[in-house]
Protein: Cell wall integrity protein scw1
Amino acid sequence: MAGAGIHPFHQQWPPAAAAPPPPGAPASAVIPPPPPVPGAPGTAAADEVRTIFITGLPVDVKERELHNLLRWLPGFEASQINFKGDQPMGFALFATAHQAVAAKAALQVRDRFSPWRDLVFDAETKSALHTEMAKKNLFVKRGVGTDANAVDQSKRLRTGGDYTHSPYAPPPFHPPPPAVSMWGTAGYITAPPPYNPYAYPVPPVAMTSPSPVPGPTAYAPVQNTKDNPPCNTLFIGNLGETVVEEELRSLFSVQPGFKQMKVLRQDRNTVCFIEFEDVNAATAVHRTLQGAVIPSSGRGGMRIQYPLPFHF
DNA sequence: AGCACA
Structure:
């Protein structure tokens, strides 16, 4: 990767938007230093690659679909699809290399309703996106800020960003992109709980009626009392090094409302995500199995949390 | 793994 020193997750998301100048203010006093005009001579690293290369798109993907996926990302300028045989190759240009890196990271995001899945572009074909930095920048006729849809009616339709004329304008990331619904099947999108999620208290360790079958051998106090907004998926942490999927499955699959689970191993650390039918089912298990000690447990029992809104 | 448009 070219952007040495740029950490992909260093991005602010949503990015800190430069405050728009107050209506009556003298422009020169409030306008920040001009943004790097992409590709302009004299601009830092005009040759820097700020294009990402996207594979894993379904063969029948439309330019508009890709555009609608990407248009929310900070700095998005243009995208296009070229076919190598019948393999679609997506390219997307961003205002800066940093934003391209951030977009790459954003496209690797797993959402909290299906954290075990790669970002799936098309649920039908289960095509999982793969994104890398491109080798060369996307060529955009007439630079940025042009209405690409109007100027380019050629067979090679290029889809430009909606706010490229104002690189500092924040993308409409609040509320989150509706594209989320593309990332999972409809069943993952559950209505938000009606109460203030951050006011939700993590219940104390419960000693009562845990799971039916191979229940935990004991309960241990759980350290981390902070939690994320409730949803129908649980995150299980503080698992022992020797834990295996079957052990977890035997415990969780018998819990009411269980739908599916995914065990992720990262080095010594094993974590698990469990999806339930609804928030209530997840909440019940959150309560009853919090701190549960199972045979493989190491130090303390399992820590049950709701997943982060975005789990990388 | 596969990187094109001009």
Q: What stands out?
A: Chain A has a mean pLDDT of 70. Residues 78 and 160 of chain A are 4 Å apart (CA to CA). Chain A has two domains: 8-188, 197-311.
